[in-house]
Amino acid sequence: MKGKIVTFGEVLLRLSKSGRKRLFQSGDFVENFGGSEANVAVSLSTMGDHVQYVTRLPDNLMGKSVQMTLRNFNVNTDSIIWGGDRLGSYYFEEAAAMRNSSVVYDRNDSSFYSITPHVIDWDAIFSDASIYHFSGISCAISRDALDATWESVKKAGTARILISFDINYRKNLWKFGVDAQDILQIMAQHADIIFGDQGEYEVISGIPHIPFDAIDSDYPIDYNGYHDYFDQVQKMYPKCKIFVMAVRNQIASTHHTLTGLLYIQGKLYTTRIYDISPIVDPMGVGDAFIAAYLHAYQHWEDDPQHCLDFSLTASALKNTIPGDFNLNTEGEIEKVMNARGPIVYEVE
Known about the structure:
The chain is of the alpha/beta class. Helices cover 35% and strands 24% of the residues.
């Protein structure tokens, strides 16, 4: 199955200090645009897919800059709507040694924060689409954004296109009086594909996650434990056809192990473990995983193992690229995926 992929969400301006400085230290900020669904869109386009990104941006130089950036990556921006006064942003303090990373959001009253239902022509957008992708972040920003996201999900269901849902739980959001778990569970009930990490699946299932303590690529995956886990989750979400989980152990700020799991109709697929050191930039790693799976599904739907291997490799490669976007082509991902033996990234 091949066709247009639609993504919906907020673009943010990311600001970080160079050299892994703390936010309050003097020095210049380094800026990038990012946002979960925009990251997915750029990655899909880089791999050669037809992708349309839907959002609301301020009609000013910042909004136009976002649009130009997306267009530079060949993302279709024709359905962007304009309004509001400002672009949301976030300040990202990079991890170093035993110091964890930190995020400070500044997105209240942004253009996407004040988006409302009935302003996007979803019928036209979905008329030639095959997949619609969104995430829990869009539900968490504001009540209006939640209502607009819910409208999009209902419209996608009416259009009978595949609905892809990234749980993407962000506990620092959700400040408008609704229960995050309740909302995310409702959204998951309508999904055909669900993505998440161990903790996010715990949010929608209530089942404690299975520990992943890999310190290298030889770690044994608890196949039976994960199979039983997804058997239980499938019963909770009978509409969903495909469950995808990214599994990561952060050994140190610049040393992670990463693998993935894929559950389809009672069968569990596992793949290799990537041992990645040093990490250049971990932002957008999950989005790279999602984009690669959607790309793979459209090209190799009948080969789930290939789809999972490809997705994990793309996610691993994103750790080597500064910024939020994964800028690896299909060929580059395939080359690394087909390399034999454990791979340890050593980046100068």
